[in-house]
User: Fold this.
Amino acid sequence: MFRRSRVGIVALIATILAGTAYTADDRNPLAGDAKAAKAGEYEFRINCALCHGLGAKGGGRGPDLTRAQKKHAHSDAEMFQIISNGIAGTAMPANGTNGQGVGMTDEEIWQIVAYIRSQEAKAPAKGLANAVHGKELFYGDANCALCHMVEGKGGRLGPDLTAVGGSRTREAIVDSVRNPSRRLAWGLTEATKEFPQEYESVTAVTADGRQIKGVALNEDSFSVQIMDAGEHIHLLDKEKLRSFQKSRESAMPKYDTDVLSDKDLEDIVAYLISVAAK
Amino acid sequence: MRGRLNTGSESSWKSGALAPRRECHTKLGFSPGSPQGLKADLSRMRNAAPLFHGAVKHGLVRQSPVGFTAMSLVASLFVAVFASFGQAQVTFERLVNSAKEPQNWMTYSGDYSGKRHSALDQINLTNVRTIVPKWVYQTAATGKLETSPLVVDGILYATAQDNRAFALDARTGRPIWMYQRPLPGDIRPCCGRVNRGLAILGDKVFLGTLDAHVIALDAKTGAVVWDVVAADYRTGHSFTVAPLAVKNLIVIGISGGEYGVRGFIDAYDADTGDRRWRFYTVPGPGEPGHETWEGDSWKVGGAPAWNTGTYDPPTNQIFWPTGNPSPSNRGEGRAGDNLYSNSLLALNADTGKMNWYFQFTKHDEHDWDATQVPVIIDTPIDAGGKHLIAQADRNGFFYVIDRTTGKLMSATAYGKITWSDKKDAEGRPVANNQASPTLEGRTICPGALGTTNFMAPTYDPQTGLFYVTARDQCDTFSTAPQPYEAGHAYYGSAYFPSEDAEPYLGFLKAIDPATGEMKQKFQHTSPTWSGVLSTAGGLVFSGDAEGNFIAFDAATLKSLWHFQMGGAVYAPPMAFAVDGKEYVAIGAGSAVYAFGLP
Assistant:
């Protein structure tokens, strides 16, 4: 079995860190090896799929890796470096630093690179989508920007969508517009808490009969922090409320095809992907 | 029966640890006005001191030349040392009779039975709404704080991540000593650089380390007294468990079920660190149970023992639970029941010989370690006078076992379960044909984290109920064949939260062990990893993932009081008293908190 020397890898990483232009030599030594790609698929499931999804199509947290055009890793060597060292400032950890031991061997990392390459879509899908028109719709007739922010412009009630084009698949974005309640988006993530807050819809009635409807920014057993449609933040103690109800019916309206055509939705998705690729 | 608050006059901390030292000085007869005399006396005392700490192993402890000559000095030192021991020595007798000193919490679960119940009732149903934080100790560690503190005679001993250990003034939270093990850079913790606490015996506390050492520390200074290597950390061995002191032995179980270790439970001589026995939880060739492993799979069969067991003094048996077979999520290649993975073991404390075992999950493919605290419960004479042991298992069933024979009495689901719908002739739930992971992925309940996990439960003798932290979460299990490679993760499968939109639910549940019936429950906002404490004050305490410490009415599980600690809880609460004042303590975020009446 192939095993790359440590010295070789160190030299390789040093080259990457030095910012040298990549050459054909930076390619995966296991490139095109179907058996290596299969081994990589299993390694991927165990080490990567929690965030990047089975099949590398992107889970709730990590980007879709089946796109040929990636934000951080272009060459095989860059991909190896990112898997080894992580991406600072993101949730992508360095190999062996997630509290689960020493991580993968170099060979196993190259197997994963081979697997990811084997999964990449060769042609960009739906090349006809119009990102410029998508932007017009986002800030115009489709009313997305009433609740969603992109690059600092838009509303605050829903999740900021600046990065969503890179972290979710095209299909997942379409699905979340057509069926917004199927999977609620994640909101605030606290350092030691296992699960992030979700964008749950809440209705509270105060002791004096005032009804407050909105989205939970955070919640525990005793208090809740709500943003209403007017972007006012309400800080409430549950025991003082007359009633408190949560719903997993998203505050986002369901966009059927009679409200937003498939073509227009594709344009909006193309816009979001173009923003995330910047 | 309500316990009475013992003010602990015979072992009160009021006179202070400094008293023996003052006594030494006096007996040595140096003059405070003579610095040279003082220096000489202290030098001789310190040089002689290691003699009284027991053997020094492996040359890892700094050893000073022994330089005393005068018999009078030796005699006075003996007097001083014994005076000191009279106050602080934690004998086996004290551990057996811990009910006589409810102000102290001297083992992981508070006593040998694993009940995590405090007989203190100063904080009770009528005044719990008034309790306030008394102190906070910041450990400066990151990650999950899973420690369960000990308290003996006014001093609190606890641990934090990366094998920190510390002793605090339990009244104020002020540190007396701090220790941190210098760990190698390539340790193999599976699930965080965590530690769940210390054992105490004699004048030492005992720590299992992430690089698979067992260490004895001087309880008064934190200095290393002995340090032994239990196993090679580079092949995935580590310790996260709080050891258990029994007689003169320190009993401890290995971690590494995610690395294909061959699991074991060890007992070390508390004085010297010499290993007295080892029980391999995966039988070797020629041993009973070996036939339950396919081929050579036993060599990397897992069955770690990473949570603290319990001890039954009348029968001299240790009850210790074991974890998953390796690889954790793939049964192919290890056909058979895979004994003694996911089992409760009854071991002779002196020899480590097994009296009986009970396997909760045969041939596990879901990482359902049975490493939950097994709680010793005796039913009243008029209710049959049974000697039982109860365990709320990670696989979603609550088991009650006759601890004399190991015979199963009952098994009742206490959470959402899809893996089993029938029982075998012994009454043990068995897997159905929808339980194994598949290549394309199959959704199974409970998920890999289980209905419960390592979080300590409590049994409250006053309500007769068993309280346990539980979650309803299903996972999609997808196989991913993986060769064994020494020191590398060995799961053989992947699992993910199921795609279903339903949220994961977290509960505190109260189960009647007599019937298995769930009597009360409190639903948390999200699942929590907090343990549970009950007290004679009619209260149950637990924490949540949102950072709250919560007091409940033990009868109704209605929340009576809460405090926001600012970090998720992965630790169990405990209770103690100093100077006649009751405290309840728990770790959250990266700090230990103590609460008491204003």
